[in-house]
Design goal:
about 425 residues; single chain; D-Maltodextrin-Binding Protein, domain 2; alpha/beta; globular
């Protein structure tokens, strides 16, 4: 009888979908190790706690977290795709290299799994590719303006609700001895992501215009709103530190948390880095404003998302599924509690006290996803980033129009326009 009980305990649970999950009471003698590749170093300790709790419940599975700096993570995962060495579980974004890997059969199709029932259906709908789901987001992100509440209160400055009011704040702060904005433009993604958040407000026809550029029927200088867009990028440069193109992200975060700058234009994904650097910082986040308050919109996307390898062994696939289900039903709540990121998980809410103004805009439906997603390949995005950096350095709008156009034509081909 004891042998029969042991045999039952070591069995696996077969889900309705056909997925196979280890039970918590499986034998320790046959331990399966899986690789979990992730690129957000600020989240490493949070995942260490989640993984430790998972190991306590599932001692027959060992999750090996591989956390690389974001600068090298993309190149490493791309190299692993090329070598057909796909991590059992990894995190990334909806990007061309991920789509290519899915098309090549390297990433699992998760459309018909039980996993999707835990995730907001609206988010999943945005992430479908050819009607299929291959990524599991547990959080959303948004672009906004981190601001030091103490500095604003000390100088009796109100949160700006329009672009004109934002520039007025930037004009006022230097007279108080305060740097308005700290920028980290050497890490081009900071600049590029912020500029993407402008597109949904200041390039009103960006989707059709980008497609027309790809097709060769529109010039960069003729994109609707492009002049105003470039003017905002140029004017921001007047209110940042000297040589923003010489500053990378970590020193910029340090300057902000030490109170040496009033604002930091970035995404909610920087929250963990900011709170790790200074847990006592009194800060908030407001949306970068539109020309009028009613025209303000927030760029928001799926953020921390999981992908599963389609090429793991059956044992590793089962183990990865077990960890993924644990993340969705247990780990995600802890992750969201720690990071305060907006939740993509049904029934899990985040502490939004830092970003109530952003949440208000999002709750009203004034939201758009990052314009390049599903439209540009990685090469285009990188060349667009260089074009922005050159605009910051030179303020030459005509050159920017030309380089922006070329990022989507000469560099962007032969990849197709996905939208």
């Amino acid at each position: 009888m004891m042998k029969k009980i042991t045999a039952i305990c070591m069995s696996v649970i077969i889900l309705l979908t056909g997925s196979v999950l280890f039970t918590a009471c499986s034998s320790k003698n046959d331990v399966v190790e899986i690789d979990f590749f992730q690129h957000n170093q600020a989240d490493e300790e949070t995942f260490n706690k989640i993984i430790a709790d998972f190991h306590s419940e599932y001692p027959n599975i060992r999750v090996k977290q591989i956390c690389l700096p974001e600068k090298t993570a993309d190149s490493v995962i791309t190299m692993r795709f090329q070598n057909n060495d796909i991590p059992d579980i990894f995190n990334s974004w909806f990007a061309q290299n991920i789509i290519d890997a899915f098309d090549a059969g390297q990433i699992r199709d998760l459309t018909d799994t039980d996993f999707v029932q835990y995730i907001d259906a609206g988010i999943l709908e945005e992430l479908k590719y050819n009607g299929r789901i291959f990524m599991l987001p547990i959080t959303k992100n948004f672009m906004g303006v981190f601001y030091n509440r103490d500095i604003f209160e000390q100088h009796n400055i109100s949160v700006p609700l329009t672009l004109e009011e934002f520039w007025a704040v930037c004009e006022t702060l230097p007279s108080k001895g305060v740097l308005p904005i700290i920028a980290a433009d050497q890490d081009g993604w900071n600049l590029a992501h912020w500029a993407q958040s402008l597109m949904g407000m200041y390039l009103p026809n960006y989707s059709a215009d980008f497609k027309a550029i790809f097709n060769g029927s529109l010039r960069g200088s003729k994109i609707q709103g492009i002049s105003d867009f470039a003017d905002i990028v140029i004017r921001r440069t007047q209110y940042v530190q000297d040589n923003p193109l010489g500053t990378v992200t970590d020193p910029a975060v340090s300057e902000f948390v030490l109170g040496r700058a009033a604002m930091f234009l970035n995404g909610s994904y920087m929250t963990a880095s900011i709170e790790t650097a200074n847990p006592n910082l009194n800060y908030g986040i407001f949306p970068f404003p539109g020309s009028t308050e009613s025209e303000t919109r927030v760029m928001s996307n799926a953020d921390y998302s999981f992908f599963l390898s389609a090429q793991s062994s059956p044992e590793k696939t089962e183990a990865a599924e077990t960890f993924m289900m644990y993340m969705l039903t247990h780990g995600a709540a802890y992750y969201i509690e720690q990071t305060k990121a907006p939740s993509s998980i049904i029934g899990v809410t985040a502490d939004s006290s830092r970003y109530e103004l952003v949440k208000d805009v999002m709750d009203e439906g004034r939201v758009f996803r990052m314009p390049y997603m599903g439209r540009w390949n990685l090469a285009t995005y990188l060349e667009y980033t260089v074009a922005l950096q050159n605009l910051v350095a030179s303020s030459n709008k005509d050159t920017f129009y030309k380089e922006f156009e070329e990022s989507m034509t000469s560099v962007g081909m032969p990849k197709t326009y996905i939208d």
